[in-house]
Specification:
By secondary structure, the protein is of the alpha/beta class. It has two domains: 148 residues, NAD(P)-binding Rossmann-like Domain (Rossmann fold), CATH 3.40.50; 181 residues, Dihydrodipicolinate Reductase, domain 2. It has eleven helices and 15 strands. Helix 5 runs parallel beside helix 6 and helix 6 packs antiparallel against helix 11. The N and C termini lie far apart (67 Å). The structure holds nicotinamide-adenine-dinucleotide. Nicotinamide-adenine-dinucleotide binds next to helix 3. InterPro entries: Gfo/Idh/MocA-like_OxRdtase_C, Gfo/Idh/MocA-like_OxRdtase_N, Gfo/Idh/MocA_oxidrdct_glycsds, Glc-Fru_OxRdtase_bac, NAD(P)-bd_dom_sf.
Length: 368
């Protein structure tokens, strides 16, 4: 066999084995997701959303509960070979039906499963918060980079029509020069045994879980990166729910333009709100980041106007999110909410905790 022909055959064989080539091979085939963690979000919210997707499909499930995994697989027509446990998860590398692993586990397991997925040659969608520390986020980004795989964080607000319209209007100057953003996110956490209240599994309290929505809102509504943060925690430590993690935490972010964001998260009230105030008007969303039923108003010259039915990128925010990563895998572009975006938030989250602990403003721009 001549050398050129041998090289052609070898490179064709390598191409056939590479997951990227597999995707490129049949450009319009929906890519397969493996859902890791069949809890509330993975099983009840994400899995049903594949019916709304154009480019994504359910290809496997990963669970510690074999009976549940078998039942969910049967409900969605998955073969037995597409069911994994946490112990044999790494063998997912041999499953060509799985292109992307979606990590829907407690926060402290995000890093481990993202890194294992990347090492198995799979792209990763990881739920928020990205992880429980900056160090974990950096390790996740490095693992995905080393494996040449995409990493996206499940920040669904970036695919939610009202939030997208609010960002567009804010950038277009609808409210004038942005002076102030306020955002509060919380719910009543009633179950003292919930993993969200165990620091080793959650990494922290309401800030890790709901505060990331307020923090994200402050960043995407202003379009700026904060330069300083001042935080204060308020937790009733005699409440059996809050022996390990915080209940309420408030923080103020200062932005280079002079804009201020006043944010809050809590486990003792239902709150879901974003407000932007500029020198010409206001943009308000309430509820702001729910799965559905979000609402938005524009205020100008003392008059309020409700914005209804802005267009979104998918049938639902979840479908838009799932299909976005597929399109990124196909085209090679970076997800709009990449691992770096999750890392930026985690740097601020660590500074918020530090500010609350030390009772002082923490600079985020390296200045003393
Ligand atoms: P959940 O408790 O309902 O589900 C967690 C799953 O992880 C369960 O199936 C559980 O069995 C499994 N698990 C594996 N190892 C575990 C361990 N050591 N301890 C406890 N559970 C373990 O939680 P959830 O509400 O589905 O949250 C999962 C992730 O999804 C979290 O990171 C959360 O922040 C995120 N989430 C995101 C949204 C969103 O809107 N983007 C909404 C809800 C949850």
């Amino acid at each position: 066999m001549d050398v050129a022909r041998r090289d052609l055959i070898l490179s064709a064989a390598a191409l056939a084995l590479s997951p990227r080539a597999f995707a490129a091979d049949r450009p319009n085939r929906p890519l397969g997701y493996a859902i890791v963690g069949l809890g509330y979000y993975g099983q009840q919210i994400i899995i049903p959303q594949f019916a709304n997707c154009q480019h994504s499909r359910l290809a496997a499930v990963v669970s510690g509960d074999p009976a549940k995994a078998k039942r969910v697989a049967a409900e969605h027509g998955l073969p037995a070979r597409s069911i994994y446990s946490y112990a044999n998860f790494d063998t997912i590398r041999d499953n060509p039906d799985v292109d992307i692993v979606y990590v829907c586990l407690p926060n402290s397991l995000h890093a481990e499963y993202t890194i294992r997925a990347a090492k198995a040659g799979k792209h990763v969608m990881c739920e928020k918060p990205m992880a429980t520390s900056v160090a974990e986020c950096e390790a996740m980004i490095a693992a995905c980079k080393a494996a040449d795989r995409k990493l996206m964080i499940g920040y669904r607000s970036h695919f939610e029509p009202f939030n997208l319209e609010a960002m567009r209007l804010a950038r277009a100057g609808e409210a004038g020069k942005i002076r102030y953003v306020r955002s509060e996110h919380g719910f009543v956490q009633g179950d003292p045994s919930a993993w969200r209240l165990k620091k080793s599994l959650s990494g922290g309290g309401s800030l890790m879980d709901m505060g990331v929505y307020s923090l994200q809102a402050a960043r995407y509504m202003t379009g700026e990166e904060p330069v300083a943060v001042t935080a204060r925690e308020s937790t009733d430590r005699s409440d059996p729910r809050f022996t390990e993690v915080e209940d309420i935490i408030d923080w103020t972010l200062e932005f280079p333009s002079g804009a201020i964001a006043s944010c809050q998260s809590m486990y003792s009230a239902n709150q879901n709100h974003i407000l932007l105030m500029g020198d010409k008007g206001r943009i308000e969303l309430e509820p702001a980041t729910r799965y559905e039923g979000n609402r938005m108003w524009l205020g100008r010259d003392g008059r309020e106007r409700e914005v209804t039915a802005p267009p979104g990128p998918g049938k639902t925010q979840f479908a838009g999110q799932l299909d976005h990563l597929v399109q990124c895998v196909r085209t090679g572009r970076e997800p709009i909410v990449s691992g770096e975006e999750g890392l930026r938030d985690m740097r601020i989250v660590e500074a918020i905790y530090r500010s609350a602990r030390e009772g002082r403003t923490i600079r985020l721009d390296g200045r003393a």
